[in-house]
Specification:
It is globular, with a radius of gyration of 24 Å. Helix content is about 30%, strand content about 25%. Helix 5 crosses helix 6, helix 10 crosses helix 11 and helix 19 (about 600-605) packs parallel to helix 20. The strands form nine sheets. The protein has a seven-stranded mixed sheet with strand order 5-4-17-16-18-19-20, sandwiched between helices. It has a five-stranded parallel sheet with strand order 7-6-8-11-12, with helices on both faces. It has a four-stranded antiparallel sheet with strand order 21-22-24-25. The protein contains 20 helices and 30 strands. It binds adenosine-5'-monophosphate-propyl ester. Adenosine-5'-monophosphate-propyl ester binds near residues 365, 367, 388 and 502. Adenosine-5'-monophosphate-propyl ester binds near residues 367, 387 and 414.
Length: about 625
């Protein structure tokens, strides 16, 4: 038996041999000529010359052995619907969607923006894009019109696919109305919009010649057989936007072959998910976890995947465990916030159901605190594996790898670097390797392994500068996370080094939120920081300077302005970015060169020492922050 340490060492010392072996887990229409081309660092090209297709690997390949096995189980506790699709049925639906898109002129390399709730049609469209070589860009339904418009302008899609509405906690979210608004704001809107009508928004309006009905189009292609578009391994499969330090989201571009291999390998070595088994990932298709582990990963592995629309506590806090029991879920993947929500409820909800099928629960997306880790491991009586990764990497950077070796779990730690990652903890000042127990920047020595981002969509320079520009004399990928390693080699993640915050596992840039706050006509400037929150991990908190302060003289006036600003954020960015509170000040703490001292503000807001203040322009500004926080 190989130990995990040996497995990892081989993945670093013999990259080509290691990944050539993993590449056998997927189908290649034409085998790769070269495993790795790293002639143009830091751009890594994996499985060069190989031709494959993500849709083929997810569906067609399984038709012979498991055509009648369930591929997708859809459960909505919002609408009460429950449906399942066998591999054969899913294959048919995907071909219909592919034919429909082709009839609208969508082909290889064209972008398709998908703005959809958690419904099977979203999966059909995503897989149909993969089939015909179109590049999907799924935007999370919680983002508002202006955010969607910014993504449209960057991706310049030929087509958008949406639904009339979604539902959250029984409340309808009007997706199509939001799409209309985003198209009005966009400079490069798509020519066509396909709408799947769920009957959730009866007042939905359509635009003649631009808007088309999914069901009507589908009816024209019931027996469609759409041939696969084989793609060279390094061609783009999708773009997924993510937040960073600037207000402008980055389009993470993913390849085809490297992603297929990375996912197939992770299903085997990390998730221990085999063909015929069931995986339930509670994320959203709009996030990277949804891409990798609701859609592609489990299907590539020949598993049944569960697509769940709803929250973890409706109709009650037992709903997820009921799903595990009823669908014999073997592998589950969720996020710490969801577990903290469940922790507020009686653990009897967990014990009510037969969880015999479940092997592991994986958690990711934000720091998992020790008490929550201990609580869920105890309540489930199963190994709960914290693993750490990013939209950029597409799969785990740090994880226990139980498919290779069952190493002991340490509470609060995502264990060790996953195979393929040459992980370094580097001192911020001089890029030297940190000592045991010393806090440093989590970095990856390139080349990045298969599955990680190929570049920033349309902006190679931004890719190099953003991710490989942290250290002056060392070209390494920065995760922008702090971490430490203990004497046993276990890693712990200690939060971001940049202005990104993590609200209930949703990654947001404080700059994006500031820009949304500034859209209110009475706001002159503001600073947004993330503050610790016992449920959501972090929450944004805003400090704003009003242009006209007369309204702030009364408590009601202040409350009213705060409410208006919050509504502006909802409208610009989406309710996920809404600050917990907006404090009004007349001055923001800045350095003499005009940089807002966000870290000092954050420290004060979390009751910590504000740190080095020698560069502050006017100490009275910090006093105002202190006073605002104490009222
Ligand atoms: O700060 C880290 C945090 O989430 C960031 C990545 O977020 P996102 O791009 O949305 O990808 C999520 C994919 C699971 C990281 O830079 N993060 C993610 N997982 C963990 C984590 N922080 C601590 N522990 C984790 N397990």
């Amino acid at each position: 038996m190989t130990t995990y340490r040996e497995f990892h060492r081989r993945s670093i010392e013999d990259k080509e041999g290691f990944w050539a072996e993993q590449a056998k887990l997927v189908h290649w229409e034409r085998p790769p000529v070269k495993v790795l081309d790293y002639r143009r660092p830091p751009f890594a090209r994996w499985f060069v010359g190989g031709e494959t297709n993500l849709c083929y690997n997810a569906l067609d390949r399984h038709l012979g052995a498991r055509g009648d096995q369930k591929a997708l189980v859809y459960i909505s506790t919002e609408t009460g619907e429950e449906k399942s699709f066998s591999y054969r049925e899913l294959h048919l639906e995907v071909q219909r969607a592919a034919a429909m898109m082709r009839s609208l002129g969508v082909g290889k390399g064209d972008r398709v923006v998908v703005y959809m709730p958690m419904i099977p049609e979203a999966a059909f469209v995503i897989l149909a894009c993969a089939r015909i070589g179109a590049i999907h860009s799924v935007v999370f339904g919680g983002f508002a019109a202006a955010s969607l418009a910014a993504r449209i302008d960057d991706a310049r899609p030929k087509l958008m696919v949406t639904a009339d509405g979604g539902s959250r906690m029984g409340k309808v979210v009007t997706y199509k109305a939001l799409v209309d608004e985003s198209i009005r704001l966009a400079k490069h809107p798509p020519g066509k919009v396909v709408i799947f009508r769920r009957g959730l928004d009866p007042s939905m309006k359509t635009v003649a010649r631009r808007d088309l009905d999914y069901a009507e189009l589908r009816a024209n292609h019931m027996n469609a057989q759409v041939p696969l578009t084989w793609l060279e391994s390094n061609e783009p499969s999708y773009i997924l936007y993510t937040s960073g330090t600037t207000g402008r989201p980055k389009g993470v571009q993913r390849d085809v072959g490297g992603y297929a291999v990375a996912l197939a390998a992770s299903m085997k070595h990390i998730y221990c998910g085999g063909a015929g088994e069931t995986m339930f990932t509670t994320s959203d298709i709009g996030w990277v976890v949804g891409h990798s582990y609701i859609i592609y990963g489990p299907l590539i592995a020949g598993m049944t995947t569960v697509l769940y629309e709803g929250v973890p506590i409706r109709p009650d806090a037992g709903i997820w465990w009921k799903i595990v029991q009823d669908h014999k879920v073997n592998v589950m993947f969720s996020a710490p916030t969801a577990i903290r929500v469940l922790k507020k409820h009686d653990p009897a909800f967990l014990r009510k159901y037969d969880l015999g099928s479940l092997k592991h629960l994986f958690l990711a997306g934000e720091p998992l605190d020790e008490p929550t880790h201990a609580w869920i491991a105890e309540a489930l009586g199963k190994p709960v594996i914290d693993h750490y990764w990013q939209t950029e990497t597409g799969w785990a950077i740090l994880s226990s790898v139980p498919g290779v070796e069952k190493t002991p779990i340490k509470l609060g730690s995502p264990s060790f670097p996953a195979y393929g990652y040459d992980l370094k903890l580097l001192r911020e000042a001089d890029a030297a390797e940190a000592a045991t127990g010393e806090k440093a920047v989590v970095a990856i020595a390139p080349p990045l392994p298969p599955g990680c981002m190929s570049t920033v969509w349309g902006d190679d320079e931004r890719f190099v500068k953003t991710y490989f520009g942290t250290f002056r004399n060392k070209q390494v990928y920065s995760t922008f996370d702090w971490g430490i390693r203990d004497a046993d080699g276990y890693y712990f993640i200690l939060g971001r080094t940049d202005d990104v915050i993590n609200v209930a596992g949703h990654r947001l840039g404080t700059r994006e939120i500031e820009e949304a706050v500034n859209m209110h006509s009475n706001i002159a400037e503001c600073a947004v920081v993330g503050v610790a929150d016992s449920l959501k991990g972090q929450m944004p908190l805003a400090f704003a300077v009003a242009k006209d302060a007369t309204r702030l003289n009364s408590a009601e006036g202040r409350k009213a302005l705060e409410r208006e600003v919050m509504e502006t954020v909802d409208k610009q960015l989406g309710a996920i970015g809404r600050p917990k509170a907006i404090h009004f000040v007349t001055l923001l703490p800045k350095t003499r060169s005009g940089k807002t001292l966000r870290r000092s503000i954050q420290a004060l807001a979390e009751g910590r020492d504000p740190g080095d203040l020698t560069t502050i322009e006017d100490p009275a500004a910090l006093e105002q922050i202190r006073n605002a926080l104490s009222t």
